[in-house]
Amino acid sequence: MIQKLCSSFVEYASTFGGQRGQIRLPFGWCQLQAKGAKLHITLGAENPADLARVDAIVVGRLKRVSHRHGRDLIWAHVERRHYT
Predict the structure, then answer these.
(1) pTM confidence score
(2) Domain 2-68 is classified in which CATH homologous superfamily?
(3) CB 27 within 8 A of CB 54
(4) Is the dihedral of CA 43, 1, 57, 70 positive or negative?
(5) Which terminus of the chain has a lower count of CB atoms within 10 Å, N or C?
(6) Which of 4, 15, 3, 9 is nearest to 54 (CA)?
(7) Residue, of 26 and 82, whose pLDDT is higher
């Protein structure tokens, strides 16, 4: 799933290897880590507005990728912060 999600961000710099992936957007970033059947996603940006933008893009893309590949998606925000 990480490879498929990172590949869907081909217009941005993205890397993946094994159970980890990283996507760099012009206004923030996303780190992915698979743990068993779960995919842990960490988002970051310089300000709350950019963080919300990263969140909306990543969630939207994740929904499309999971639907396209017949996967169920259960999404929950565990913690939300922005980093400078």
Answers:
(1) 0.71
(2) Alpha-D-phosphohexomutase, C-terminal domain (3.30.310.50)
(3) yes
(4) negative
(5) C
(6) 9
(7) 26
Strands 38-44 and 20-25: unpaired
Quote the pLDDT of residue 28: 92
The whole-angstrom separation of Cα 29 and Cα 7 is: 15
Cβ proximity of 48 and 36 under 8 Å: no
φ, ψ of residue 77 to 5 degrees: the values are: -80, 120
3-class SS string, 38-50: EEEEEEECCCHHH
